[in-house]
Amino acid sequence: QVQLVESGGGLVQAGGSLRLSCAASRDTGCISAMGWYRQAPGKERELVAVITSGDSISYADSVKGRFRISRDNATTTVTLQMNSLKSEDTAVYSCFAEDGVTVQVMCIGTGDHYWGQGTQVTVSS
Predict the structure, then answer these.
(1) Which of 20, 39, 61, 77 could form a disulfide linkage to 8, CB 3.0–4.6 angstroms apart?
(2) Is the pLDDT score of 75 beyond 80?
(3) Any idea what the Cα angle at residue 93 is, between residues 70 and 84, rounded to 5°?
């Protein structure tokens, strides 16, 4: 079981920046990956960024070069730094974590995902 607490979000002008954070805690096992989805009204949910337990990082093409995801291992917190925001970035952003099991020194994802409550990001133009 993974618990997620999100913070951040809000209203920002186009070209501005916001920082989202997500703190994860777990009872057992490990967290294989954390990241952020976003969903705008009338749009499909989009995977924005992912960071794995091995620090592999992936970004959606739409945010490459503008967003940066990082992880604080000590606090099990992931941060999404969003720069050069555009109106099309407006969406509800939700943190997720993939549960995992420890195999040797690796954390292998189980396919079970846990979600934060979501936070609204609105970019005005």
Answers:
(1) 20
(2) no
(3) 65
